[in-house]
Amino acid sequence: MFEDIIEAKASVGHFVKKRIEEFKKLGREGITFYDFRPFLDVQLEADIFSELCFCLLTANSSASIGIRLQKEIGIEGFKRMSFEELVHTISRYGHRFAKQRAERIVKARETFEDVLDIINSAKSGREIRDLLSDACSKYKVEGFGLKEASHFLRNVGFDDVAIIDRHVLRYLRENKLVPDQKTLTRRIYLMAEERLQDVCSQLNLTQAELDLYIFYIKTKKVLK
Predict the structure, then answer these.
(1) Measuring CA to CA, which residue among 102, 103, 115, 50 is closest to residue 79?
(2) What is the pLDDT of residue 23?
């Protein structure tokens, strides 16, 4: 079982290792340089806030659009562009929820110092994820649920949380590891995370690595 993951590791393991190193550098130094070639002809520099915005942009969209927007807007653009400028830029890339995402980016500016404090609390990714969820509820920051918080934490170097997106969920269902339910509740999300941890234990992988391999199996790309 899971021969496809073993094959993916043999094929793109060096790309996954490189991506994980980029994530760790971002969490450690506050800035990193991504090179998505040969899967996407994009290279970009990111800081922690622009990575948070990338995760907001990618929800209900795609990693490719999120990456291209992250490069277009840039580190300073996420901090300083007006709401109208953000809407215009996001719209040009065909994002279905340009106004909503621009609103969330502007709102995230107000709460980012609290986000940094939570990350620097040096707890596990899962503990930090719960604290982030509480903070988002407190400040009425929408669109930052379990999946988005896990995505962000993985991308700043935490490797003990799972990103249960449509690709991962489809993989789990195909392998009969989670029920085939239409709604991804918190209970199902955490169940899926535990099933993925079982796979990690069998294959000696972290959740961060496993996610990138499953994404590759489903898309033939190693992105983020």
Answers:
(1) 50
(2) 98
Instruction: Kindly tell me the sign of the dihedral angle through the C-alpha atoms of 38, 27, 124, 114.
Output: negative
pTM for this one? 0.94
Which residue shows structure tokens 């988005």? Answer: 148
Regions of the chain where pLDDT drops below 50: none
By C-alpha distance, which of 105, 97, 99, 40 is closest to 74? 105
**Unique residue bearing structure tokens 């996420």:** 78
- pLDDT at residue 122, as a whole number: 67
Domains assigned to the chain = 3-159 (1.10.340.30)
102 in Cβ contact with 123 (< 8 Å): no
67-71 long-range contacts (CB < 8 A, ≥24 apart) are 67/34, 67/36, 67/40, 67/42, 67/223, 67/224, 68/42, 68/93, 69/93, 69/95, 70/44, 70/46, 71/42, 71/43, 71/44
pLDDT for 65-76, tens place per residue?
Answer: 999 999 999 999
pLDDT at residue 134, as a whole number:
74
147 is a catalytic site residue: yes
Among residues 9, 165, 211, 224, the one annotated as catalytic is: 165
Report pLDDT for 140: 62
Distances (CA, A) of 18 to 5, 91, 102, 191, 224: 17, 31, 30, 29, 11
- Among the options 9, 147, 159, 211, which is catalytic? 147
